[in-house]
Write the structure tokens for this entry.
Amino acid sequence: MMQARSDRMRRQFKTIVFIPTMGFLHEGHLSLIKEGHKYGDDMVVSIFVNPTQFGPGEDLESYPRNLERDLVLLQKEGVNAVFTPDAKEIYGKEFQTYVTLEKLPNYLCGASRPIHFRGVATIVAKLFNTVKPHVAVFGQKDYQQLIVVRQMVRDLNFGIEIIGAPTVREPDGLAMSSRNTYLTPKQRISALSLYKSLQKAKELTKSGIQDAATIIDAATELIQSYPETDIDYIAICDTETLVDIQTINGPVQMLLAVQVGKARLIDNMLLNP
Ligand code: AMP
């Protein structure tokens, strides 16, 4: 049905803009829609908590959901169609075809979530083939995901323009995330350490420090000074290949993942010395 709709829209010379989400929408998601409106005149949003990107023991079952509320928000944002498939429809009988990237998933989040980006690339490819968009918008909040999707689109000739939209933050700086609902009030304070460490890193690079290890050490110390934080990784990388950088002498991306209570939080920032 979605495919037939997309064909119809294309015959009417509509420009289809697509925003994939896992729902439980917040201002971050809505900012992608606002950005997307600039690129086309048919806006499609999907809501699908994709089981194949969750590893064993991760939060697939407990991932927050509220479809009714999401649909009200999407209507207000002038979305033309909402795609809410169920897992049986997406992963039919004998499903066995996955999209895997050779290098990008070996770093950062992929290192501790080994099947995550295979799940992401596969669902995004399937959604692209169903929604047939001209343009798709992804958040820079999930920086590695954005890079993975861009690479897949290039490698497999999808011919879809990928837009990366800036991270929307709470007033104090915490990156908005559906997973922030897992945080207790005390953990919410610790969660701010991600943003604070990125800010600190930015200051240090501005002050002339070029050694990535020194900056990562400072960030580590800052985060560890908050209770209930368990650092997965802190990295300073090439903005496109995500390969680690030792000496900062141009724009680099700093990325980090920290477990705070039940929430695995990620954030990133461009350091531009
Ligand atoms: P999710 O529902 O978490 O899978 O996210 C769906 C899309 O929204 C992805 O492209 C995310 O990168 C993007 N997104 C999530 N949080 C934010 C945020 N705080 N600011 C901007 N985009 C976001």
Observations:
- Residues 21-22, 28-29, 31-32, 138-139, 141-142, 165, 167-168, 175-178 surround adenosine monophosphate (CB under 6 Å).
